[in-house]
Amino acid sequence: MSDSIDYQIESGLSVDDFITVLQASTLAERRPVDDRERLAKMLANASLILTARCEGRIVGVARALTDGAYSTYLADLAVDAAWQGRGIGRELIRRTHKAAGEGTSLILLAAPKARSYYPHIGMIPHDSCWITPAKTN
Prior knowledge:
Elements: E1 6-9, H1 15-24, H2 36-44, E2 48-54, E3 57-66, E4 71-79, H3 88-100, E5 105-107, H4 117-120
Parallel strand pairs: 4-5
Antiparallel strand pairs: 1-2, 2-3, 3-4
């Protein structure tokens, strides 16, 4: 397994590649991976999508929504479990923040298994987050 990672803004990320990296990470547990139409909307309406690839194979993705001036919400950060611990997540976050505008606050909701990761890379916890859950049919 080569360690050469190519990072890029990839606004045309395919649903198949998105599903691949979600399933290879733990994020598929909390994303609608069986609903291709919904995933396609998630990708189409993102402000910014960055990928990490090794020899063309997707190993990481960051999907963000931003106004480019005040806030950037990092909606998804997924790194293939086999590639975790190599700085890919940290680099995807850095590049996402840079592309969105470092004058924005980068905001995310941590997956339960990733709560200890974010302070490790210098992010600051916030104790006031409020959610209205999605309505399902």
